[in-house]
Design brief:
Elements lengths: L6 H4 L3 E9 L3 H10 L5 E6 L2 E7 L5 E7 L2 H12 L2 H8 L3 H10 L3 E9 L2 H10 L8 E6 L5 E7 L8 E5 L3 H4 L12 E9 L1 H14 L3 E2 L4 E4 L2 E5 L8 E7 L5 E2 L10 E3 L1
Parallel strand pairs: 1-4, 5-8, 9-12, 13-15
Antiparallel strand pairs: 1-5, 2-3, 3-4, 6-7, 7-8, 9-13, 10-11, 11-12, 14-15
Helix pairs in contact: 3-5, 4-5
């Protein structure tokens, strides 16, 4: 079996990169996460969308994102509600179609991303394992300081699986976490991505089959410092996050401040 973490097999590695939270209003989301004790950095614009980023010491981060124009957000929601975005993703499964479904659907934690060094090799290995994967696409983002980050994105057409990112510019341009990863609430990193049991089971099986992850029983594996595991109960949301914290506050953050995302400090 070839895998994506064995340097002898692919020459490159996969690691957890970031989680994506769709918000209705970026300024409101920044204020909300600031009030929860996070140091939120403005990321910049990518085409019609803009974002803000919460960096952690280990190089992972949370992305808060939404269209710059509320009219675009309303249009995407309309197209989503009538099934047009779903049809587009089905018959033309590009990574961009995946992202349009983000912006048309409800706010909250919607996706997660793994970082690779050789995107073409990663796609080749996934397809060799029978996982339908869209071609890579180029993206860029102009930071508030004027510097431009460049990268490529791709992903399996099964949206339960994470999408993938390969940096073109140095990773530190896109993720300048060294100077922005100290948070008043004591959060130091993403501890776990928690998956809903039914849909998450296939994700874990795929990771274990295609990637040389470190397994911890039948219901969990790790990508670098981040554990990917199944939720304890059947009614859990499709995605949730556990954040590792050295602070005194523990437990779930108020959903009204996290755009409806389930985020737990541990």
């Amino acid at each position: 079996m070839t895998n994506l973490l064995d340097p002898d097999a692919s020459g490159k590695a996969l690691s957890f990169d970031h989680a994506v939270i769709i918000v209705s209003d970026l300024e409101e989301a920044i204020a909300n996460f600031n009030s929860l004790g996070f140091d939120v950095q403005r990321g910049g614009t990518t085409g019609p969308v803009h974002n803000a980023l919460i960096y952690f010491r280990d190089g992972t981060y949370i992305e808060l994102t939404t269209p710059v124009s509320r009219w675009f957000r309303a249009l995407f929601r309309l197209l989503y509600s009538v099934g047009a975005l779903g049809l587009a993703a089905k018959y033309r499964p590009t990574v961009m179609a995946r992202f349009l479904l983000w912006f048309g659907g409800p706010s909250g934690l919607r996706d997660w991303c793994v970082r690779c060094v050789n995107m073409d090799k990663t796609i080749e290995l996934l397809r060799a394992q029978g996982i339908e994967t869209c071609d890579a696409e180029y993206f860029s983002r102009k930071r508030p300081d004027g510097e431009v980050a460049e990268w490529r994105l791709a992903g399996p057409t099964d949206r339960r699986l994470p999408f993938m990112i390969e940096d073109i510019s140095p990773t530190e341009v896109r993720v300048p976490f060294q100077d922005a990863s100290e948070h008043p609430n004591g959060v130091i990193g993403i501890s776990a991505v928690v998956l809903q049991r039914d849909s998450g089971l296939k994700v874990l099986e795929t990771l274990k089959r295609c990637v040389a992850v470190e397994t911890t029983g039948n219901e969990a594996c790790t990508l670098g410092s981040v554990t990917i595991r199944l939720a304890d109960n059947q009614s859990a949301p499709r995605l949730a996050l556990e954040l590792r914290s050295s602070g005194e506050v523990k437990g779930p953050l108020p959903a009204g401040k996290t755009s409806g995302s389930l985020i737990v400090l541990v």
